[in-house]
Amino acid sequence: MQIMEIIQVYKCFCDLQRLRILNLLKEGPLCVCHLVEILDSEQVKISKQLRYMKEQGMLEDERVAQWKVYRLAEIDHPLLQQNLKCLQDCYGEEIDFDEDNKKRAEITIRMQQEDAACAQAIKI
């Protein structure tokens, strides 16, 4: 494992908002609009974090109509996998993760009930 790869992984893990995004995306893809709603933040700020993590190779994106959908990259990088597991193990210890996951579940239910167009984009 090269030093640069280690730095790229840890740069993504050294910001609470990026950790919250990774936590949400470990359950599956989400549209930017849902991340904005869950994290109660401005679209510009969320998009900046998403772009950064994509540049680091942590995320992939796909444009579906007018929606931009993000998901965790299919990475077999052992350091990344270990840190994502650690993040999962921290679930419930960090209040933001618990609240974020509850909001994600509510949004998923709402999208299914309303048959939201962007629901098709994330294939729930």
Could you characterize what this model shows?
This protein has about 120 residues and is mainly alpha-helical. The protein has helices at about 5-15, 15-25, 30-40, 45-55, 80-90, 95-115, 115-120, and strands at about 30, 60-65, 65-70. A hairpin with a 2-residue loop joins strand 2 and strand 3 (about 65-70). The longest helix has 20 residues, at about 95-115. The chain starts with a helix and ends with a helix.
What is the first-to-last residue Cα distance? 35 Å
Structural class: mainly alpha
Which CATH architecture would you pick? Orthogonal Bundle
CATH superfamily: Winged helix-like DNA-binding domain superfamily/Winged helix DNA-binding domain
- Per DSSP, what share of the residues sits in E-state strands of 2 or more residues? 5-15%
Largest sheet, in brief, is: 3 strands, antiparallel
Mean residue pLDDT:
81
How many domains, in number, for the residues? 1
Count of separate DSSP helical elements: 7
Shape: globular
